Amino acid sequence: MECVPEKPVETGSVLLVVDDYPENLISMQALLQRADWHILTATSGVEALELLLSNEVDLVLLDVHMPGMDGFEVARLMRGSQRTRLTPIIFLTGNAQSRDAVLEGYACGAVDYLLKPFDSQILKPKVQALLEHQSNARALRRLSRDLEIAQAFNASVLENAAEGILVVNEDGRIRFANPAISRLLKVSVAGLEGVPLLDFLQKPHVPEWYESAIYHGYRRGETYRVHDAILRSAQGQLLPVTLSCAPLSGQQHAMVVTVLDMSEVCHLHQQLELQAITDSLTGLLNRRGFQRSVEGVLMRDAADTQLRALLYLDLDGFKRINDSLGHEVGDRALSWVSEQLEQCARPGDVLGRIGGDEFTLLLNVTEAQEAAQIARQLIDMIAVRQQIQGLDVSLGVSIGIALSPGCGTSLETLMRAADAAMYEAKRAGRQQYRFYDALISAQPLLSPVHWK
Predict the structure, then answer these.
(1) Quick one: average pLDDT of 164-181?
(2) Could you tell me which residue ranges the GGDEF domain spans (predicted)?
């Protein structure tokens, strides 16, 4: 019996009357005649069980004494089946039963005994009451199954949700946590229960729960959102997240807090930011990155008297190499030059490639001679002949130097001065360095530097 699924009831109630005398079945059908009752009949226990397999029966009226399989055995088989174990049974008998027989009937699952002949004024109300009880019980079981399905579905959604989900009581303590937030905070689900949300909230800084915007939003019945919040995991890791805190309806006295991990988004944003300020060929700062870094240094240290030197480097002979040997060799040469520059740069110096064969280097120095020594070192290093793809490659570099604050304190002013000094070095024969001085300042700048 267990293998047959329940069939839904379309309309009305289904009654099964079991009696080995056909005339008794006809009599029962007449007594139980109602438009909303559908009567099934069986003349044996075997036939009754077959009908129970193929129909959803609400009530069984079962004769006790039948040849072959009696009513008690049918009742025991019904109670042993998941399908029919809750179906009410009324035993029908033509003789008064002994006390033991009555007890056996109730032990088999009977809800009542009726003696033949039947009084319709007693039979129909009794059947009606049992059918109403059965209908209510079936509806309750159906609601219970629906509730279990809904609970299982909700649990599955919460278990598999990528977002962290918390239910936080109005006192700020966590009532519920799903696995995603458990993994994010590195705390077990059970370990999160009862813990104040503020124990994990790093930003916005909230010293007192009842003074927080989260709590005030909850009291107003509004959803409070924070797009740049930071949580601190149990291991101290700072996690960029977005928070959405929405009050629960009814008498829950709590809010649901949805947590979206923004770590990957922030990482991608940082990567894009890095790409935007980095020269893809050499890995040095590009023009934008150099400008941002140097302006940050100059703005931060505007009040100090630190002597700085801006070196503007322009390669000598690069165009010839690029045109005659090809762009691949030219790119390799630029990469090699950037490596030489990085060897000379010290902690705190700012190095960048701002054009095709133009490099800049901001130095912290104690005197002008220190900048001159580094410039001479760079000229000597770059002048070394190199083998690139089996070809001899030789380069030179002309360097202009502008000192700050003497030549100015803004990047644009320093760049214009260093650029003018670099052209003076080229006019003097290349592979040299020149400081920007009064003599150069009296001449028109050959190549103004425009940053914006």
Answers:
(1) 92
(2) 306-438
With bands split at pLDDT 50, 70 and 90, how would you rate the model's confidence at 164? confident
pTM: 0.54
- Calculated CA dihedral for residues 16, 135, 35, 119, nearest 10 degrees: 60
Distance, C-alpha 130 to centroid of its chain: 52
Helix (H) or strand (E) holding 310: strand 307-316
For residue 318 the two structure tokens come to 């690069």
- Structure tokens of 171? 């006192």
Crossing angle (nearest 10°) for helices 45-54 and 71-79: 30
* Residue 100 pLDDT class (50, 70, 90 cuts): confident
CATH class of the region 161-265: alpha beta
**Cα dihedral sign for 148, 150, 153, 158?**
negative
Altogether, the residues listed in the chain come to a count of 452
In the numeric block, the tokens 């008794």 are attached to 24
Domain extent listing, the chain? 13-142, 161-265, 277-441
The CATH number assigned to the domain with range 13-142 reads 3.40.50.2300
For residue 174, what are its two tokens? 């966590």
**220 compared with 139, residue with greater pLDDT:** 220
Distance from C-alpha of 198 to C-alpha of 210, rounded to nearest angstrom: 11
**Residues 384, 313: contact at Cβ < 8 Å?**
no
Report the greatest alpha carbon distance in the chain: 137
**Cα(201)–Cα(231) distance, integer angstroms:** 5
DSSP one-letter code for 13: E
CATH of domain 277-441: 3.30.70.270
350 contacts 285 by C-beta, under 8 angstroms: yes
**Alpha carbon distance 82, 362 (integer Å):** 85
